[in-house]
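User: Second chain of the day. Same drill as before.
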Amino acid sequence: MKKILVVQSSARQEGSLTREYTAQLVNQIQATNPGSWVVTRDLGAEPVPHLDGSLLGGWMKPAEEQSDAEKAAAARSDVLIDELLASDIVVIGSSMYNFGITSTLKSWFDHVLRAGRTFKYTENGPVGLAGERKVYVVTARGGRYSGTPLDFQEPYVRQLLGFIGIKDVEFINVEGQALGEDEAAKGRAEADEVLAAIA
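Assistant: Same format as last time:
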């Protein structure tokens, strides 16, 4: 039995390839791990607020000095971190917008990369505290960016996850979706092959 956290970040509810492929991947994981349960955090439907002074205050101030807004921001961060740390597997749907991740996914990372919870500072530098899990990242891209200097998405997500100790990260990229029907079909076929190998 696996505990699966699904983080969706596409702005679209319908016609989203990241939603389609994350659903397929989760079904595969559940098929090979009967009894697994899924928690879905849909940032497209219910975005978490962007980083602001209340969130920073909720992290950095002693509880007795926090305003009500800061306490609420810290509590929201705690919920998101608890979801992450309770999971065995994380599946992230990360549409590529303007060469990078969505602002909603960035906000989620801003809430879960938190000193004392998912990483700690030591005399030898920061140490991740969230490493005991597998992460799959499903991307959808209009062009072909994998392995090119224009792929700001995968290196960035790997850096964020690696910072909190998560090194076991696998990408499923659905590429070429704005390059005509043939390239779009080829991109989907390539992603299908990756999913089949995971199964």
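The first helix runs from residue 17 to 32.

User: Great, on to the next one.
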